[in-house]
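A reminder from the course coordinator: this example appears on the midterm review sheet, so study it carefully.

Given structure:
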């Protein structure tokens, strides 16, 4: 159980709730908010819009930049009780290489996620939407670190499975999907775009069926691990993603509603798994038992 990058601020949570957050940490590995080489302010507000079944965000990757992250955030994130995945995004191959090299040499970092799928910056989609570009990003960064590389896929590509296969062939250890789908909301009175960045990325229950289909398709196109996410709110949803082929799952938007969602969903999933194991091991499963789980 992981968090979707940028959906759970572990440093702010610890500042607010104290070390109880560490004692009952809701994830088995923590994925940082995406960092870029240079510091970024992010998009102008408003940055969020609530839809009937989820959120549209237009955050724009605000962050302290590589140096600020390494000196300020990394020491705090290293105190979390779980392995740390650092999410990085470069606006060019050279930037990406500097990010992976800089993060990859730090012992506190367990894995690196290449975010080639943020919809809220001008050039963000280019690498992630095109299999050749995604492969190039992995080929370039693979020799720079021994840490596992996860490629975060965009659902806004015409064939995410082709991007996943290209990332695998280039040496990625895992793919994670889905990032958000492009979306927009209009201001109720002025009728101009509500979000400061104009458009944004849709997440939450509204995208779950899309995410499930993409996880299912990608898991059949690659042998590397698939980390599935997109609108997971319950253990049943998590079980669906595992059955579709995900080897791990991540919770994002649900953590805004319930900060302990990671723990709750993992607990629910464990009950479902134990129950289904019991049923499959039983020589004569009771009629309708599977439907009840
Ligand atoms: C953002 O900061 O705009 C969201 C990041 C992402 O979608 O990758």
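Designed residues:
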């Amino acid at each position: 159980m992981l968090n979707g990058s940028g959906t759970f601020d572990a440093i702010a949570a610890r500042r607010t709730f104290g070390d109880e957050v560490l004692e009952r940490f809701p994830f088995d590995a923590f994925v940082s908010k995406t960092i870029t080489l240079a510091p970024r302010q992010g998009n102008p507000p408003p940055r969020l819009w609530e839809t009937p079944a989820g959120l549209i965000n237009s955050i724009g990757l605000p962050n302290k930049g590589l140096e600020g992250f390494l000196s300020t955030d990394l020491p705090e994130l290293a105190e979390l009780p779980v392995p740390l995945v650092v999410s990085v995004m470069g606006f060019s191959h050279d930037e990406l290489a500097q990010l992976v090299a800089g993060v990859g040499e730090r012992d506190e970092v367990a894995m690196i996620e290449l975010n080639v799928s943020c919809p809220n910056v001008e050039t963000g989609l280019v690498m992630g939407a095109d299999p050749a570009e995604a492969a190039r990003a992995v080929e370039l960064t693979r020799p720079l670190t021994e840490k596992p590389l996860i490629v975060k896929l965009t659902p806004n590509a015409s064939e995410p499975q082709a991007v996943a296969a290209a990332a695998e062939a280039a040496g990625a250890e895992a793919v994670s999907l889905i990032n958000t789908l492009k979306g927009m909301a209009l201001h109720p009175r002025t009728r101009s775009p509500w979000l400061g960045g104009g458009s944004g990325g849709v997440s939450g229950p509204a995208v779950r069926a899309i995410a499930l289909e993409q996880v299912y398709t990608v898991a059949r196109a690659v042998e590397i691990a698939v980390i599935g996410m997109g609108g997971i709110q319950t253990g049943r949803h998590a079980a669906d993603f595992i059955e579709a082929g995900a080897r791990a799952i991540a919770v994002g938007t649900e953590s805004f509603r319930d900060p302990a969602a990671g723990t709750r969903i993992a607990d629910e999933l464990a009950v479902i798994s134990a129950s289904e194991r019991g049923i499959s091991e039983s020589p004569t499963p009771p009629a309708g038992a599977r439907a009840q789980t």
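The longest strand covers residues 84-88. The radius of gyration is 19 Å.
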